[in-house]
Every structure is written in structure tokens, then in C-alpha cells.
Amino acid sequence: MKTIKIESLVRFLSYSIGILGFLSILRFVDAIYPVFFIILLALSIYFDSRQNNPLPRWTLNIISFVFVVVAFMRVTMDDPVKPIVETLLMLLAIKFLEKKSIRDYMQIYLISVLLLTGSALLSLDIEFAFYLFIMMFLLSVAVISLTYYSQDQNLMLRVNTVKSLIFKSMIIPIIAIPLTGLLFLILPRTSYPLMNFLNRGSAVTGFADNIMLGGVSEIQFDDAVIMRVRIRQLDPSMLYWRGIALDFFDGISWRNEGSERLSMPRVFKIKGEKIDYTVYLEPYYNKYIFFLDKPYMQYLNKMNILDDLTFMLSENINRRIRYDATSIISDVLPEHEINKNRYLQMPKIIDNRIKEKVKEITMDMDDKDSTLSIMNFLKYGDYKYSLKNLPITSSPLEDFLFTYKYGNCEYFASAMALMLRMKGIPARIIGGYKGGYYNEIGKYYVITQRYAHVWVEAHLKNKGWVRFDPTPSTTIDSSPITEGFSQLRVFLDTINYHWNAIIINYDFSRQMRLINKIRINIQQPQINIDYVKKQAVQTLPFVVVFLIIIFAYMFIIKRKTYEERIMAQFLSKMRKLGYEKNKTEGLEEFAGRIKTEQLRDKILGFIQTFESYLYKDKKLTKQDYQKLKSMLTDLKLQ
């Protein structure tokens, strides 16, 4: 029979728990810390295998103290959690290096749990739930194993005993998980999440306050998710996600200089289809909020409204946020009174070739025809879309138009906006996203950074701001991300989406709606009396049987002594092995009939242990009962 030393089991579980804590924060810490952790962990495993820890404990304690002091100095209000998590990771690695006692194992468990807690403060996503569930099972088994270890460090356990220990240890988390879910639903919640100042999240790089020619391509090479939008599936031509409006161009980059904050949202008489949707925006390094096309109504607290129909928060978005909105799908924003000087600004130095080209393609045309002519010249002319080897020079726009003749969306949009301004037509560029991958399973759009896009809004008489997209459509409109978005990734993203929608965004208002729904159902029950009577009659026999079983257990089984219970289990075990004890037969006489020598020796060992308690004229204690019960577990035919 194979056996496992209790010390080996405790050590294996401790390393598993420590590695799990490490994995939970791996994506949040600087790269140098995982490298050090892996090196120290490998050293620890090597030392443990040789049962030799050459490093004195006082040296490791000094190193730990230095790490704590450095972490304290690194903590700031902008980033309070990450330095602490990185320090805990180093403390865990150092703790593994020590010659471990029971107290050290407990400290390893504690630090690992603190690492998992730190990961929740950084990002409370579906990965945290995955690590949490595994940690609950591992800790339950580890603590019980450590109890055995504390009694006898050289104890040898049979494989079946270890399997039984693991199985029974798992009962605790299995019971705890549904109870945790119930507490999550019913515990009072605040309308303001108090831990948001800690939960900074793992931000992706997105749109900034300015767009440099060639800069959007850097965003598009990132396949990270920027937002998920719960909405019905729309025509791809409708999927313009408006974020930032830029009005000042210096020849190399665009920025916003003239936007004004409004105390009240402006009301535009926009004609088009109204669409309701919910956005789950990931943290990124800016303040702008994204909406589908022309936002009509939005529901988000502490949001600043700008006069160019863009919206921003007062601080960078460093945690996942959710907001509901209603938009109108329209190419036109009917704003007639504008500051023309703001939207006719041009760089101080402009290549005369651009001016000549504008004259050539807009000769004797009005504003509308000129705008269309400029767009067609860029979109359907000799220019090609590309993300590689972009003309990032001292005069990128001129090089794009007359030398390279290829570029990213910001080159096409910048060229059109500048040409329109040369023609005297106010223009601005809009930064955001175009398109999205529709998740059929979850019924929502996934918008990744590769959908980053800029386009042009031109101000035309009697219309207002009209959207024009001069970027060649074959490169943008039909760019599904299925090659990087496999079916497995779609499935996992659906789970992550529902986790965010149900768990993370379960706030006080949702809790109250749930309570009110339950209250209404209780106050206004729809009861069919005849149906209830019929069900009661059918259910009554089962209820009676259930009560009889409970009564028998409480007043018959429970009243049996430990001696009676262990003997009943012994005889039942023997019957399963094919041996029936005669009423007049003694226990040792009964054991003598066993043909298999190894089984007979085990049975005799059990009987002798049992009788040793009886001969001492004392009752079995619970500990004695458990010991005898474990001996019964090993009884089986070889």
C-alpha cells in the first residue's frame, strides 16, 4: 500500500497556495518582481529537497524588514496598492526560503491570501473569482493537513486516507460558497463604492488629449478590450463611437483648445433612430467617455459636458465603469451658431502644393460639393490605408499627400480637415472607435483598441456638423477580429461580461430593486387554492417519511454509544467483504475465520485496539472513535 508522508503533503499544499497567490497578482506587478520570486522559489524547492537551508533566519528577517521600509516609502495616494502587493510577493518568497515550522506555514497561507486580496483591489474581475475558489479549496485541505502535521511530523498516510482527507476537506468550501453568495445579495450596500480609490485596475492605453499623426496606429496594434456595449446588433455603418473632438492643428498633431464646459446639456433637434444601450468601459489613461454616434441622453454622475458634444470625467478613468445612454443615429448634428475662427485655424506653415491641390479639386464648387470632392479625392483616389512605415517626419501631412500616399486614418482625416479649412469650411476631427465584434452569445459588442478611428465633421450651411469619413472603407468597415477572437475567447469574454454586469455592478440601487421585486411577490401572491391542496395531499407522505427519518436519527442513532456505533460499522464492513459474524462467536474467533492473512492481521489489530479500551473499563471518547473509524477505512480485500 502506497503511503505519503504528512510533511510532503503539507509542503506541496503550501507551495501550491503560494504559487496561486503569485499568479493572482502576476499581471499587475512590474516584471522584475516575478523574476525574483521565481528564482527564490526555485532555490527554496532546492533547499527543501536537500533538507538544508543555509541562510540564517536573522538574515532573511533583515531583508524582509528592508522590503517593508521601501514599500512604505513607495506608497502614494495615486498608487497605494501596487507597492504593497509587490512587497508581499517578496516576503512570500523569503518565507519559502526559511526552514519552515508550523508557524511559517501559517504565515505562508496568510501572505498568499493577502496577495489574492490585493489582486481584488487592483481588479475585481472574473479571474479573481477563479483564484478565490481554488484558494478556498486548497486552504481547507492545507489547514486540516497541518493539524495532522502538528501532532506527528513523521506521520505516514495511506493514499486512500489522503484522498478521504481531501474529499472531506472540500465540504467546507462547498458549503461556504452558496452562503457567501447569499451574503453578497443581502448585506447592506452603499450607493458609493468606498474601495474605488484603491481599485485602480489595469488600464489600457487609449486616446489622449491630442492625436499625433501616426499615433493612432500604436493604439490599433493593441488588441485589448476598451469597452463592451450591450445593445442589439446594428448595421456596421452605424457603429461610430464618439469620444473626443479636436480643433487645433499645428501640422503634426491635433489637440483640443477651444472646448467649453456647459452647466446644462445642450438640446439638439437631431433626426434619426433612437437606440438605448449600456456601456462597460474599461480603465484607460484618459477622461473621455464614449457614446454611440450622437448621444441624446446619458446617465452618469459627475460628468462634464463639453460644447462639442463630448463628455469627460474630472479624473482619469482608472477603474471599470458602467453607464446607460440613449443615442440618435445621424450623420448630421444641427448646430448653426459656431465660432468659425476656432474651426478655421491652420498651421503657420503650409506647403503650397496642398493649397494648389485644393483649388484643383474644388474649382468653382459650393461648400457641399467641395466637401464631397475632397473626401472622394482621398477615399477613392490613389491613396492607400496602412499601419506600417507611416510618414512620421517633420512634415508628415505633406509627405503623406505627395510622397508616400499611404497612411493611417488620422492622415486621411487630417488631410481632409485641413483642406476644408483652406476652402473656408469649418472642420474638426473626432476621435473614437468604429465598428465592433458582436458577441451572439451575450448579445453585446466587444470594442477593442484595434477599432480606434478618427473621422471628420464639416460645418455646412443650413445643416450643421456633418460626418465625413475619408479613410478607405475596405480597411475599416470589414475588419472583424475573428482571427484574434477565437470561439474560446468569445466564450470566456461572455463569462467575463456577465461577471462584470451581475457581480461588479451589483450596487445599492440594484439591491433595492431586487428587494422590492421580492416584496411585491410576497405582498401580492397569486395563489390557486385548489392547486395548493392537491400538491399538499401529494407531498404529505414524503413529508411524513422525512420526519420519521429525522426522528430516528435524532432519538435512535444519536443515542447509540461510540462503542455501539463503531461495532455496527465494523460488522457492516465485514458483511461487505463477505464475512458474517455469528451471534455466539467472539470477535477474535470471528477474525480467525478470515482466510487472507494481511486482512486478518488488520482486523485483529482493530479488534485488539477496540478491546484495549473495553478492558480498561472506560468509555470510548470521540478521539478514540475517530481512530478506530480510520482503521476501518483501511479494511478491504487485497
Note the total helix count. 21
Tell me how many strands there are: 23
Total domain modules: 4
Largest sheet data: 6 strands, antiparallel
Poorly predicted runs are 190-201, 475-485
Spatial ordering of strands, largest sheet:
12-15-9-4-21-20
Q: In percent terms, what proportion of residues is strand?
A: 15-25%
Inertia-based shape: elongated
From the alpha-carbon coordinates, what is the Rg to the nearest angstrom?
36 Å
Distance N terminus to C terminus? 10 Å
Briefly say what this structure is:
With 638 residues, the chain is of the alpha+beta class. The chain contains 21 helices and 23 strands.
Secondary-structure blueprint:
Layout: E1 3-5, H1 6-25, H2 32-50, H3 57-74, H4 82-97, H5 102-122, H6 126-151, E2 156-158, H7 159-169, H8 171-186, E3 210-212, H9 216-220, E4 225-230, E5 240-246, E6 248-249, E7 253-255, E8 261-262, E9 273-281, E10 288-289, E11 291-292, E12 294-299, E13 303-306, E14 311-313, E15 321-329, E16 332-333, H10 340-343, H11 352-361, H12 367-379, E17 384-385, H13 396-404, E18 406-407, H14 409-422, E19 427-434, E20 437-439, E21 444-448, E22 452-460, E23 464-468, H15 487-504, H16 508-523, H17 529-557, H18 562-576, H19 587-592, H20 597-615, H21 622-633
Helix pairs in contact: 1-4, 1-5, 1-6, 2-4, 3-4, 4-5, 5-6, 6-8, 12-14, 18-21
